[in-house]
From TrEMBL:
Domain of life, per lineage: Bacteria
Family matches, as PROSITE patterns: ABC_TRANSPORTER_1, ABC_TRANSPORTER_2
The ABC transporter domain, residue ranges: 12-231
UniProt key word Cell wall biogenesis/degradation: no
Keywords, comma-separated and alphabetical: ATP-binding, Nucleotide-binding, Transport
Record PANTHER family: ABC TRANSPORTER RELATED, IMPORT ATP-BINDING PROTEIN
GO molecular function: ATP binding
InterPro entries hit by this protein: AAA+_ATPase (IPR003593), ABC_transporter-like_ATP-bd (IPR003439), ABC_transporter-like_CS (IPR017871), ABC_transpr_LolD-like (IPR015854), MacB-like_ATP-bd (IPR017911), P-loop_NTPase (IPR027417)
Name by which UniProt lists this protein: ABC transporter ATP-binding protein
Species classification: Bacteria, Bacillati, Actinomycetota, Actinomycetes, Micromonosporales
Pfam families for the chain: ABC_tran
Length: 233
């Protein structure tokens, strides 16, 4: 049985989260609450703890102290098996460099989360294929990641994050390797698809232009979430 949250109204919460790597404190008491359906940009300088915070929220890293909650469940006290189920069944991920499986075609990469969830291959490939038209990738289904441009690969990674209709997408610098225009196209697609599916998005970026796509921006400085900027959009 998992402990239930009584006080939390956020879907995702970090409460006084602390994590030190060796002698480097990465998080020093981070607090964040994200509502269901919200798109939150986590900003801040390089090395401030943004990725570490995202990894703690997503159950990839376990904090030394503090609490992480998702949908009324304590994440930080779960065992690795339950955290990996949470990541597989309820979260989608987009990282800076797409991280597609190079041996698989683009459509096979996108079908992967469905196959892991137990879908039959024809159904998984058909559902994955539908995302190619939606994201302007029609005709690229059979390419391998080495045969895609950076922007195309990142849109394939986006399709892979979205295909199983996760409740949350955790995106860490998803436009970091792209030029401005391509980055904006990827953000437009991410935000449009997330809003259409009601997906909550936690978006780490150090680019103000990218953060402007979010409903709300928070700033991480020295391992703490120390400023809130409400964005009217
Ligand atoms: P950001 O994403 O804001 O650039 P990070 O969360 O990656 O920052 O890193 C925060 C701090 O923790 C930095 O000082 C970084 O060097 C350190 N750090 C992050 N990950 C590790 C790790 N796996 N091992 C050692 N130090 C790390
Ligand atoms: Mg980072």
């Amino acid at each position: 049985m998992s402990e239930r949250s009584e006080r939390s109204d956020g879907m995702i919460e970090a409460r006084d989260v602390r994590l030190t790597f060796g002698s480097t404190p990465a998080l020093r008491g981070a607090n964040l609450s994200v509502a269901r359906g919200e798109i939150v940009a986590v900003m801040g300088p390089s090395g401030s703890g943004k990725s570490t915070l995202l990894h703690c929220l997503a159950g990839i890293l376990v904090p030394d102290e503090g609490e992480v909650w998702f949908d009324g469940q304590r994440v930080d006290t779960m065992n690795e098996e339950r955290r990996s189920m949470l990541r597989r069944d309820r979260f989608g991920f987009v990282f800076q460099f797409g991280q597609l499986v190079p041996e698989l075609t683009a459509v096979e990469n996108v079908a992967l989360p469905l196959l892991l969830a137990g879908a039959r291959r024809p159904k998984a490939v058909a559902e994955a294929g539908a995302w190619f038209e939606r994201l302007g990738l029609g005709g690229l289904e059979g390419r391998r990641s080495g045969e895609l441009s950076g922007g195309q690969a990142q849109r394939v990674a986006l399709a892979r994050a979205l295909v199983a209709k996760p409740e949350v997408i955790y995106a860490d610098e998803p436009t970091g390797a792209l030029d401005t225009l391509t980055g904006e196209q990827v953000m437009d697609l991410l935000v449009t698809a997330a809003r259409a599916q009601g997906t909550t998005v936690v978006l780490v970026t150090h680019e103000a232009r990218v953060a402007a796509y979010a409903d709300r921006q928070v700033i991480v400085t020295d391992g703490r979430v120390d400023a809130l900027v409400e964005v009217l959009s």
